[in-house]
């Protein structure tokens, strides 16, 4: 970790209201930051319009406030960062560190499921399509504060991955790394659904000559093995009017002692921060909630 104040973040996408799974991620990252006397930032990942729902951003922010999870500084909106993402891609293309690819999913499946870099070796390069970065770092392992050493399939880790989709949308991997660097995030605390892609993010940090944060991946709330609660499978929204029960449910999921229900959420939050113990968080990628 950088020798500076702890800076963490919560970065939801506005694809629907917060549910128990997203509350676990929000609360876990908040408690970790505040227990380290650090900052907790909020970023809205709103660069995938087909998945976004009108009014979801405001609803997410009001829900965080209702649960007493108040952030530091201004909310960062990825939609305000489009120029920065494109500028980085333009630089990479000019340096021949990225290239256009027109391979379909069917073609990649025929390659064995891992893209083999063929479009990057063309004597006459494509001038349209998805944009892939030449993955010169190929990081295939990293340390997670909860899970320990994580090793990733070498083919996945070394693949030239997409940084801008063929439909013109910017890839999550590019945007999240650039924004974590911009906000000087020192530790990323989030759900374990992003455990494996972390290696690609570390590779990007290295290729961009930036210091990566430390990593802490929390267990996912699942209804059955491999099926996490999500907005896409219509997970019920948490209650903004009476947040006490869901707050304590999220604490219990994180292995923490529940706190005394209070009308003022600030008191519950203060107690939760004071008693937070990272060692009590289950080091599992998912937990089934029936």
From TrEMBL:
Function: Catalyzes the tRNA-independent activation of glutamate in presence of ATP and the subsequent transfer of glutamate onto a tRNA(Asp). Glutamate is transferred on the 2-amino-5-(4,5-dihydroxy-2-cyclopenten-1-yl) moiety of the queuosine in the wobble position of the QUC anticodon.
Molecular functions per Gene Ontology: ATP binding; glutamate-tRNA ligase activity; zinc ion binding
Protein name: Glutamyl-Q tRNA(Asp) synthetase
CC cofactor: Zn(2+)
GO terms under biological process: glutamyl-tRNA aminoacylation; tRNA modification
GN (gene name): gluQ
UniProt: L-glutamate binding residues: 9-13, 45, 172, 190
PANTHER family reported in the protein's UniProt record: GLUTAMATE--TRNA LIGASE (PTHR43311), GLUTAMYL-Q TRNA(ASP) SYNTHETASE (PTHR43311:SF1)
Ligand binding (ATP): 231
Domain Glutamyl/glutaminyl-tRNA synthetase class Ib catalytic: 9-241
Species per Swiss-Prot/TrEMBL record: Shewanella benthica KT99
Binding annotation for Zn(2+): 101, 103, 115, 119
The EC number(s) this enzyme carries: 6.1.1.-
Keyword ATP-binding: yes
Family to which the UniProt record says this protein belongs: Belongs to the class-I aminoacyl-tRNA synthetase family. GluQ subfamily.
Keyword annotations of the record: Aminoacyl-tRNA synthetase, ATP-binding, Ligase, Metal-binding, Nucleotide-binding, Protein biosynthesis, Zinc
């Amino acid at each position: 970790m950088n020798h500076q104040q702890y800076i963490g973040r919560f970065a939801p996408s506005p694809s629907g209201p917060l549910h128990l799974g997203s509350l676990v991620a929000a609360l876990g990252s908040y408690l970790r930051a505040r227990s380290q006397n650090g900052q907790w930032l909020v970023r809205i990942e709103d660069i995938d319009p087909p998945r976004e729902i009108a009014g979801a951003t405001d609803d997410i922010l009001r829900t965080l406030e209702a649960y007493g999870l108040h952030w530091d500084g201004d909310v960062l909106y990825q939609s305000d960062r489009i120029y920065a993402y494109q500028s980085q891609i333009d630089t990479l293309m000019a340096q021949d560190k990225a290239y256009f690819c027109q391979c379909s999913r069917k073609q990649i499946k025929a390659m064995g499921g891992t893209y083999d870099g063929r479009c990057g070796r063309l004597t006459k390069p494509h001038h349209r399509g998805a944009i892939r970065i030449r993955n010169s770092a190929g990081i295939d392992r990293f340390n997670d504060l909860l899970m320990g050493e994580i090793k990733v399939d070498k083919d996945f880790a070394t693949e030239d991955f997409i940084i801008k989709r063929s439909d013109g949308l910017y890839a999550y991997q590019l945007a999240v790394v650039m924004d974590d660097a911009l906000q000087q995030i020192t530790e990323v605390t989030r759900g374990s659904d992003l455990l494996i892609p972390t290696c690609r993010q570390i590779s990007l940090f290295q290729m961009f000559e930036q210091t990566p944060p430390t990593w802490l991946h929390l267990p996912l709330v699942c209804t059955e093995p491999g099926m996490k609660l999500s907005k896409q499978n219509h997970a019920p929204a948490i209650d903004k009017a009476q947040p006490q029960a869901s707050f304590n449910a999220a604490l219990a999921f994180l292995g923490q002692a529940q706190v005394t229900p209070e009308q003022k959420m600030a008191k519950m939050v203060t107690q939760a921060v004071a008693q937070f113990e990272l060692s009590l968080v289950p080091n599992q990628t998912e937990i089934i909630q029936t």
